[in-house]
């Protein structure tokens, strides 16, 4: 009987201490609680053609691929038509200032053009007024993914 009392008392004290620790916010350290551990993922992976050649642009492309999109890259907007002839794309990403060349290249395609405007040049406002969806060149990967997801979802 003597042996059971200290064991029970120890169990009660341990449960009280553990309960207090969780109440103080330590629950954030439990896996899956409070902190996101997984990488961004594309719920609707799409086929994307992107005009990109700088290191920053190619880094964004890598992140879109890591999220699950199938991305093809061309260095110049004049190469879009050739790529569209070989593959079917859902979305074309290119700078807003290249919109006339992109429009000429995508005329016979079902691919949706999402312009990427340069920040602080006035392009952002113009692109937002002219297109249903647009991006800024320094938007986060999360913003790119959300915009692409909304475009793919709208297409059905």
Structural write-up:
The model is unreliable at 20-37 (pLDDT under 50). 46% of the residues lie in helices and 15% in strands. By secondary structure, the protein is an alpha/beta fold. The radius of gyration is 25 Å and the shape is globular. It has a five-stranded parallel sheet, with helices on both faces. The longest helix is centred in the first third of the chain and has 20 residues, at 4-23. It has helices spanning 4-23, 55-67, 80-86, 99-106, 123-130, 141-155, and strands at 47-51, 70-74, 91-95, 112-117, 135-136. It starts with a helix and ends with a helix.
Please report which band the strand proportion falls in: under 5%, 5-15%, 15-25%, 25-35%, 35-45% or over 45%. Answer: 5-15%
By DSSP, the count of extended strands is 5
Order of helices and strands: HEHEHEHEHEH
Helix content: 40-55%
Summary keywords:
156 residues; alpha/beta; 6 helices; 5 strands; 46% helix
């Amino acid at each position: 009987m003597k042996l059971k009392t200290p064991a029970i008392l120890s169990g009660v004290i341990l449960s009280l201490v553990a309960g207090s620790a969780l109440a103080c916010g330590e629950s954030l350290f439990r896996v899956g609680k409070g902190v996101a551990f997984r990488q961004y993922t594309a719920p609707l992976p799409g086929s994307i053609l992107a005009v990109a050649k700088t290191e920053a642009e190619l880094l964004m492309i890598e992140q879109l691929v890591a999220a699950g999109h199938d991305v093809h890259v061309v260095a110049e907007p004049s190469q879009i038509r050739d790529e569209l002839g070989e593959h079917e794309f859902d979305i074309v990403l290119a700078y807003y200032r290249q919109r006339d060349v992109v429009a000429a290249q995508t005329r016979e395609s079902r691919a949706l053009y999402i312009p990427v405007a340069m920040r602080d040049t006035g392009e952002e406002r113009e692109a937002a007024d002219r297109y249903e969806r647009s991006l800024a060149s320094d938007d986060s990967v999360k913003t790119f993914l959300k915009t692409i997801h909304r475009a793919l979802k709208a297409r059905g």
